[in-house]
Prior knowledge:
alpha/beta, 10 helices
Amino acid sequence: xxxxxxxxxxxxxxxxxxxxxxxxxxxxxxxxxxxxxxxxxxxxxxxxxxxxxxxxxxxxxxxxxxxxxxxxxxxxxxxxxxxxxxxxxxxxxxxxxxxxxxxxxxxxxxxxxxxxxxxxxxxxxxxxxxxxxxxxxxxxxxxxxxxxxxxxxxxxxxxxxxxxxxxxxxxxxxxxxxxxxxxxxxxxxxxxxxxxxxxxxxxxxxxxxxxxxxxxxxxxxxxxxxxxxxxxxxxxxxxxxxxxxxxxxxxxxxxxxxxxxxxxxxxxxxxxxxxxxxxxxxxxxxxxxxxxxxxxxxxx
Length: 300
């Protein structure tokens, strides 16, 4: 998508943080932007900014885990601005601690938002984008935690690995429809994601970690505060959308870490000369792939 002016963007989590940065940058490009967020106070604060900018931005209060509400948000977007051509599945939550301490509620909350919310966005908007027939782009927010784990990040890491794999697969399936897919993998960003537990639903409140705790919030904020400004990160997203890049990773400090990680993966692979059955498997895969057997459905 080279020319974004006049096109419609739908951004989850758009009332604050990384997603608000995206909304600011895409609105500045002349897009009509819908910001969807679970917190009314964040929507109100964001809209105060956009009204001053005279930007075409529309707010929707939305819980991205609610599929019916997501469909209603898509309908409202089309009524207000028209069909969506840029979908940013950005909203996410985090909680940290040893995996063995995680409760079922901890797992269900993080996975329902970070993975389920992305799935709901895709399932709701992609068929509409295909039917509209004018191409488009999807940006899914994963994390550097979608490449490698760190202590205490297991539940969050699991969700972000899933978003990365989902995005890479979706890109292949949507290529024939001229719909690009990028996966954003931030490191530290100066946001309020440390407040994520404030939006945790009551029916998933049993935790092995923490609820609202000013001291924990303070420590978490100290880690991310030196990170990128959300608008600076969003400018990288804009560039990736225009170039149809798969990965968005504007963090030079992770370069050596990723090189080491991928070298370990390569080291685990046998040399082809030591694997006499390799060609049999390759030929079988190529044959089945050509016959369409590895891609039973092309719908999303």
